[in-house]
Write a structure and sequence with these properties.
The chain is of the alpha+beta class and 145 residues long. It contains three helices and eight strands; from the N terminus they run αβαβββββββα. The protein is elongated.
């Protein structure tokens, strides 16, 4: 992770003549909360070490989001007497999810694409670190884009 981060910083700086002020990581393939905590400790720790060793005092804002495409949740939209799949881009960010104002961490579900056959499978996003204080709506819109 340290080597990858260093190479990414070198490439970014070469092309942009500056270092990024914010780094966004979408991390898929991580199990439950215990594994997520471990991944944050190890991967984020290695990234932070790479920042410090790359340039003294360099500390970009980090947005770290876990992605879980293997959810059992299903959402539907009532349209008159019909029950339909919600349209792509639909976000569920209340009632079924957590939001910790102090820690600036939260989660949300999003329908990533149009489902014409069967039921739409939402993707579960867990914002585990948000150093830059990005608003929830901004992160949701950025994620969909």
């Amino acid at each position: 992770m340290s080597n990858f981060t260093t190479k990414a910083l070198q490439n970014y700086e070469t092309h942009n003549k500056k270092l990024p002020g914010r780094i966004v990581v979408y991390r898929d393939g991580v199990g439950g909360p215990a594994m997520q905590k471990r991944v944050l400790e190890v991967e984020l720790g290695k990234m932070t070490e790479a920042f410090k060793s790359y340039k003294s005092g360099y500390a970009p804002k980090i947005l770290y989001v876990f992605v879980n495409k293997e959810t059992n949740a299903r959402f539907f939209e009532e349209f008159g007497k019909n029950v339909l799949n919600p349209p792509e881009g639909t976000v569920v960010d209340t009632d079924l999810v957590e939001f910790d104002v102090k820690a600036k961490v939260f989660d949300f579900y999003m329908i990533p694409h149009h489902a014409s056959i069967a039921t739409a499978r939402p993707v579960h996003y867990i914002v585990a670190q948000n150093d830059g204080d990005l608003p929830r709506k901004t992160i949701e819109q950025f994620t969909y884009a």
